[in-house]
Write a structure and sequence with these properties.
The complex is a heterodimer of chains A (139) and B (756). Chain A is built from seven helices and no strands. With 139 residues, chain A is mainly alpha-helical. Chain A folds into two domains: 77 residues, no CATH class; 60 residues, Propanediol/glycerol dehydratase, small subunit (Hypothetical Protein Yqey, Chain: A, domain1). In chain A, α3 packs antiparallel against α4 and α6 packs antiparallel against α7. Chain B has two domains: 411 residues, Diol/glycerol dehydratase, large subunit (TIM Barrel), CATH 3.20.20; 198 residues, Rossmann fold (3-Layer(aba) Sandwich), CATH 3.40.50.10150. In chain B, α6 packs across α14 and α8 crosses α9. The chains are: A mainly alpha (139), B alpha/beta (756). At the A-B interface, α1, α2, α3, α4 and α5 of A face α2, α5, α10, α11 and α12 of B. Chain B: GO terms for molecular function: cobalamin binding; hydro-lyase activity.
Chain lengths: 139, 756
């Protein structure tokens, strides 16, 4: 289902449909539930579905690049924090010593996490870094 | 002999002004010192083949640097570009200030424009036009503001108290950083807790190293990030240890964690880093902004930022800062419009810099106003800090402009600070992190800044911070600790902010939280189309903005006068003897007093008892062997007419007129009104000896002498705005007692000689 600006803000128009990773919806995440130990950090994490809905809204109001970022974000939701930080580090200047290192990261994103857009993004970086001589050694 | 000097002394005076601490740089495009255009700036241009950007601002695809590549692939909309680039820049500039051309038309065109084109268009606008275009083009209708909450000790108690205060002033975002980087976790917890006191919805950031910042966000303590810096040249970008792709990846990572994010860029950074390529500040910044839109971030913090002080040294630099903000909103980005780094020592330049943003509105007018004192601002002093925060509140009131803040009563501030300090202390105790003493807490509640506190020091904080990090404490632990210790409302407030990230609503452009609701460019778009449209201060909001401290009205003036009534009654008695007679004796001098003199008003604006003032004048007249009478006039309260009427009643032809506020005049019977002999108009600085001398001079005139007129030395202070409201209110009390045609009354004065 494609969302439009009429659905925004989702937390106000459809709170029951906004859920965390374990399916707990907004109205269920109460202070009492927290105190009872029924809410974990995982219940407070955004889902790919919510990000896709926000991407739909962004596109509907004429912000296609913002929508694409939300879609890339949606692909990263399930990617572990450590791997995200590892890839970020690799994308910084001079960290990767060759194009292959970045291509390998892209492949992992694609194969392990089905992060197709992210994979292409990293590949584009690899190609640019090669063209601009960014695989140089930094002291 | 007056010696000849080698300079005009005025320059020596000017040397003492704070302005002279500012230094100014010469325009020097070759070395990067040019605001709007440099010979090295490319001419706008684009080549598109098969839906692909094959040349950009004169650079062919195979020569693109990484910034060109990113802009060509991710920013430029190839369908719009041919149309947008073909437009005459002057025409587009006019559209930006034409209220009949809708914002969305211009936003669509911007998506097809290259950096050189965007810069060329906005360079055509003067400062006024830029401010107007900014108000029309900014994305969200309702303006907001952001605060810095830091302190020199990284003291969590003070951070919590100051965060609570900032929230109460109405800041939509608060941002902290630390003096000692390992204290990041403690600062984050302290501000998160303090920010939950009083109301919920203020977004919070802990500015630290990017990976660390993301981890803190993951633990739920923060809700936004703006440390994602981008640069306008390839070399400065790599020198900043990133690339457009690494930053864009980070943008997606923040989105994936439900954390609001904006980029940071601003004029002067490439110049500071030494990689400006001889390009103008505006052109480099236009590149940064195109990059940011291409990366898909919702917004930007720009308008100089760390480079603002440097930019302000360059001719046109301050106008350039406005121009880059305009490009940001024209590209449809949220704009936290700088005004953070203090770019000048001159208070006049500070006021001038903030004004366009205040009246045009901005998503976040300051990307960090120091809600704390200058020395506690760990980002370095902001344009406006805790010291000047009330000046800002008054500016809002003066211009009936919503600068995003609301005056805060002192009693409420104390209440919130106490609550915040208790809350963070409770959390620390509950989690076994620290046990702040009562003395620590009290010293923080009443402290203006960290110099006044006896609280936690950076080393103590490091233990707390590292424990939070190592034990993996999350926002859930903090919410529980608050609730367990009776801070249920704060626990709810904190939980509500974390829940925001589930829907991702606040990831949309220009999102903030007002009264528990998301307000963004999606559901509160700027709809400015001329007078009466766009954001307007509502009557309710106007009353809030007006509610600053120390506001006088007539009731307040009468109340403070009434405090002196009893005291004056001990010193003087006025007895009405009926209609005043025309004096005929040559030694008769008349002092004419005003309608409220001694009846409703008891002190001059300088604070002298009216009994003392009258006594001094009477003594001086009598000392010359003359007789002095006091007559009250009720047909006028005007000093000049009081004096003239008194002179006409006086046998000597000389009269003194005096109002209760202390303004006095010596008049002579045959002179035209206002063409008096001497005037004491500077009541606020007139001292008793001046009134005594006035009496002596009146006597001298009555004796036919020509005395030296009394000069009350003044430097304009009596005309200061500190007196005007009070003077007008007092005068209204006088004129309120006027009766047309009321006859003058002879008044018998008894001075009791009571000791004060």
């Amino acid at each position: 289902m494609t969302h439009t600006r009429a659905d925004y803000p989702l937390a106000e128009t459809q709170p029951g449909a906004v859920t965390g990773k374990h399916g707990k919806a907004l109205p269920e995440i109460t202070l009492d539930a927290v105190l009872a130990g029924d809410v974990t950090m995982e219940d407070l994490r955004i889902t790919p579905q919510a990000l896709q809905a926000q991407a739909d809204v962004a596109r509907d109001v004429g912000r296609p690049t913002l929508a694409l970022n939300f879609e890339r974000g949606a692909e990263l939701v399930e990617v572990p924090q450590d791997f995200i930080m590892q890839v970020y580090e690799l994308l910084r200047p001079g960290r990767a010593k060759s194009k292959e290192e970045l291509l390998e990261a892209a492949a992992t994103m694609r194969d392990t996490y089905q992060a197709e857009r992210i994979a292409r993004f990293i590949e584009e970086a690899a190609e640019t870094y090669a063209a601009r001589g960014l695989f140089t050694f930094r002291f | 002999m007056t010696p000849k000097l080698n300079r005009w002394k005025r320059f020596a005076d000017w040397d003492e002004r704070p302005l002279r601490l500012d230094k100014f740089a010469a325009e020097d495009p070759a070395n990067g010192f040019s605001a709007f255009s440099s010979p090295a700036d490319p001419k706008p241009g684009i080549g598109i083949k098969g839906g692909r950007v094959v040349s950009l601002d004169g650079v062919l695809e195979h020569d693109y640097d990484m910034i060109d590549r990113f802009i060509a692939r991710h920013h430029i909309d190839p369908e719009v570009a041919p149309e947008a680039m073909a437009l005459d820049s002057a025409t587009v500039a006019r559209w930006l200030v034409d209220m009949n051309v809708p914002r969305e038309t211009l936003v669509r065109l911007a998506h097809g424009m290259t950096p050189a084109k965007l810069a060329e268009v906005v360079a055509q606008l003067n400062a006024l036009e830029i401010a107007f275009a900014y108000s029309k083009m900014r994305a969200r209708k309702t303006p907001g503001n952001q605060a810095h909450v830091t302190n020199a000790k990284d003291d969590p108690l003070q951070l919590a108290a100051d965060a609570a205060t900032a929230v109460a002033f109405g800041f939509d975002e608060i941002e902290t950083t630390m003096r000692v980087s390992r204290n990041a976790w403690s600062n984050a917890v302290a501000c998160a807790v303090g920010g939950a006191v009083g109301r919920w919805g203020t977004l919070f950031q802990c500015s630290s190293e990017e990976a660390e910042e993301l981890r803190i966000a993951m633990a739920g303590f923060t809700s936004y990030a703006e440390t994602v810096s981008v640069y306008g040249t390839e070399k400065s970008f790599t020198d900043g240890d990133d690339t457009p792709w690494s930053k864009a990846f980070l943008a997606a990572a923040y989105a994936s964690r439900g954390v609001k994010m904006r980029c940071t860029s601003g004029a002067g950074s490439e110049l500071l880093m030494g990689f400006h390529e001889a390009k103008s500040l505006l052109y480099l910044e236009a590149r940064c902004l195109c990059l940011q839109r291409g990366m898909g971030v919702q917004g930007t913090q720009n308008g100089g930022i760390d480079g603002a002080p440097l930019t302000a040294t360059i001719p046109g630099g301050v106008r350039e800062l406005m121009a880059e903000n305009l490009i940001a909103v024209w590209l449809d980005l949220e704009c936290a419009s700088g005004n953070d780094a203090r770019s000048t020592e001159s208070e006049i330049r500070v006021g001038a810099k903030i004004l366009p943003y205040l009246i045009a509105g901005s998503d976040l007018i300051c990307s960090g106003m120091g809600s704390i004192l200058k020395y506690d601002n760990s980002f370095n002093p902001s344009l406006i800090n805790g010291e000047e925060l009330e000046d800002y509140l008054v500016l809002q009131r003066d211009f009936e402009a919503d600068g995003g803040l609301t005056p805060l009563p002192e009693s409420r501030a104390i209440e919130l600070r106490e609550r915040a300090v208790e809350a963070i202390a409770a959390v620390f105790e509950e989690l076994g992190l620290s046990t702040p003493t009562e003395d620590m807490k009290t010293s923080v509640v009443y402290a203006s800044g960290s110099d006044d506190t006896r609280s936690l020091m950076p080393r103590d904080v490091s233990f707390i911070s590292e424990a939070i990090k190592e034990r993996g404490i999350t926002v859930i632990d903090v919410v529980k600790a608050l609730a367990n210790r009776g801070f249920r409302e704060e626990a709810e407030n904190l939980l509500n902010v974390v829940k925001l990230r589930l829907s991702g609503d606040y990831l949309q452009t220009s999102a903030m939280i007002r009264n528990g609701r998301i307000v963004s460019a999606v559901n509160d778009p700027n709809d400015y189309l001329g007078p009466g449209s766009g954001y307007r201060v509502s009557e309710e909001r106007r009353l809030q903005l007006n509610d600053i401290r120390d506001v006088l009205d007539q009731k307040e003036v009468l109340r403070s006068e009434a405090l002196h009534e009893k005291d004056e009654a001990r010193h003087i008695r006025y007895r009405n003897l009926g209609p005043a007679a025309n004096g005929s004796a040559k030694d008769d001098v008349v002092i004419g007093i005003s309608p409220a003199f001694g009846l409703k008003l008891y002190r001059t604006t300088a604070g002298h008892r009216l009994s003392e003032v009258l006594g001094a004048m009477l003594d001086a007249i009598r000392a010359r062997g003359l007789k002095a009478r006091v007559v009250r006039f009720r047909h006028t309260a005007d000093t000049s007419f009081l004096g003239l009427s008194a002179a006409r009643l006086a046998g000597s032809g000389i009269g003194i007129g005096i109002q209760a506020k202390g303004t006095a005049v010596i008049h002579q019977r045959d002179r035209q009104p206002h063409n008096n002999l001497e005037l004491f108009s500077n009541a606020p600085i007139t001292r008793l000896e001046h009134y005594r001398a006035l009496g002596a001079n009146a006597a001298a005139y009555a004796l036919g002498e020509m005395p030296e007129p009394i000069v009350v030395p003044q430097r304009g202070e009596a005309m200061g705005s500190r007196y005007h409201a009070r003077v007008a209110l007092i005068y209204a009390i006088e004129t309120g007692l006027i009766e047309a045609g009321a006859a003058p009354e002879e008044v018998d004065i008894t001075l009791t000689g009571a000791k004060s």
